[in-house]
Design a protein that fits this description.
The chain is an alpha/beta fold. The protein has a single domain, classed as P-loop containing nucleotide triphosphate hydrolases (Rossmann fold), CATH 3.40.50. It is built from four helices and six strands; from the N terminus they run βαββαβαββα. It has a six-stranded mixed beta sheet with strand order 2-3-1-4-5-6, with helices on both faces. The protein starts with a strand and ends with a helix. It binds guanosine-5'-diphosphate and magnesium ion. Magnesium ion binds next to helix 1. It comes from Aeriscardovia aeriphila. GTPase that plays an essential role in the late steps of ribosome biogenesis. Belongs to the cytidylate kinase family. Type 1 subfamily.
Length: 162
């Protein structure tokens, strides 16, 4: 059996960029505007000799009707089917209500969660991730998905959940 890791978070936080970084290739679609990944897509991945499935999802938008509620639904389905969850938040926008609502959904799911604080492109800013302890989801891992910084430590943490 292969563990399944669902990557969730608000639109535009860098989920698809992180999935590409994990895969080491451009497989997940990255766009400069929110909400491009509308569905959920699984990819076979490997970290330190362990195979797992990584699931990219559309941005989760709580309480929004129409297409965005569909996106929210896909993220919830992905979480339901996953063994562990990687919650991506954005250091450049900071903690938002949407992040907090997503955390409530994740708590209900009872799945193990690791928090990645993305867009910390300069390692000298990595300490800013500590603000996300407020989410109450354990240690926030600073990363730059775009530049590949911090992703190794993050994946080490994720693998302990799978
Ligand atoms: P998603 O909607 O959560 O899947 O986000 P995407 O992966 O599509 O990325 C949204 C935007 O954020 C794109 O313009 C990315 O280039 C940008 N982005 C993603 N990761 C980083 C990062 O580590 N640093 C910076 N500066 N931008 C990033
Ligand atoms: Mg995406």
């Amino acid at each position: 059996p292969v563990g399944v890791l669902a990557v969730v978070g608000r639109p535009n936080v860098g989920k698809s960029t992180l999935v590409n970084r994990i895969l080491g290739r451009k497989a997940a679609v990255v766009e400069n505007k929110p909400g491009v990944t509308r569905d959920r897509v699984s990819y076979e991945a490997n970290w330190n000799g362990s195979d797992f499935l990584v699931v990219d999802t559309g941005g989760w938008e709580a309480g929004v009707e129409g297409i965005d509620s569909e996106v929210a639904n896909q993220a919830e389905i992905a979480v339901e089917l996953a063994d562990a969850v990687l919650l991506v938040v954005d250091a450049q926008t900071g903690l938002t209500d949407m992040d907090q609502r997503m955390v409530r959904m994740l708590r209900k799911s009872k799945k193990p969660v690791t928090v990645a604080v993305n867009k910390l492109d300069d390692v000298r800013d990595f300490a800013e991730a500590s603000d996300f302890w407020r989410l109450g989801m354990g240690e926030p891992y600073p990363i730059s998905a775009m530049h590949g910084k911090g992703v190794g430590d993050l994946l080490d943490a994720c693998m302990t959940m799978l």
